[in-house]
Amino acid sequence: MSLVTVCFDQVFDLAPGMLKRKEVTFFSFISNTTCQYAVPAPGRPKIQAGMIVTAYLWEDANWQTLVGWRDHSSNEVVIESKAYEMFFLVCLGLFVALILYAGPSIIYQCICFLGVALSAAWVLTSILRIRRIESILRNAKRL
């Protein structure tokens, strides 16, 4: 995990897409003498030449692992949405309500609740990770 500040000298090949069931914008850019291709930016951010951003990369120097960035001119933070995780959490709640309403055997209820608890832990961990990265980016200064 690393923070890197770059200026997008040239931006090209912008294309909306999906990556791991999440909405992304693929783009390529040139910064100084470095060229990066098909970088997946979360969501549908405004990407243009001349932007100075501090990017959060999951792996050092690997732009394919871009998690988000902070645009220094507008102070906008671009990071993946928590909507997918929130939807999953609501579905888990509905599943629990269905189990309680249907009233199956106690063994079946215990197995289902264990699955719900593990799934909820995964979802909450993901939400907290996104919030932590967002906080890091909001406090990021130009490096």
Provide a descriptive summary of the structure in words.
The protein has two helices and seven strands. The two termini are 15 Å apart. It has two domains: 2-79; 83-130. It has helices spanning 83-102, 106-138, and strands spanning 2-7, 10-19, 22-31, 34-42, 52-57, 66-71, 77-79. With 143 residues, the chain is of the alpha+beta class. Strands 1-5-6-7 form a four-stranded antiparallel β-sheet, with helices on one face. A three-stranded antiparallel β-sheet has the order 2-3-4, with no helix packed on it. A hairpin with a 5-residue loop joins strand 6 and strand 7 (77-79).
Which SSEs are present, and which pair or pack?
Blueprint: E1 2-7, E2 10-19, E3 22-31, E4 34-42, E5 52-57, E6 66-71, E7 77-79, H1 83-102, H2 106-138
Antiparallel strand pairs: 1-5, 2-3, 3-4, 5-6, 6-7
Helix pairs in contact: 1-2
Q: Which structural class do you get from the secondary structure elements?
A: alpha+beta
Question: How many distinct helices?
Answer: 2
User: Strands across the major sheet, in which order?
Assistant: 1-5-6-7
Order of helices and strands: EEEEEEEHH
Helix content: 25-40%
Gyration radius from CA atoms, angstroms: 19 Å
Low confidence ranges: none
Sum this structure up briefly.
The chain is α+β, with helices and mostly antiparallel strands and 143 residues long.
For this entry, give a set of tags.
alpha+beta, elongated, 143 residues, 7 strands, 3-stranded antiparallel beta sheet, 2 domains, 2 helices, 4-stranded antiparallel beta sheet
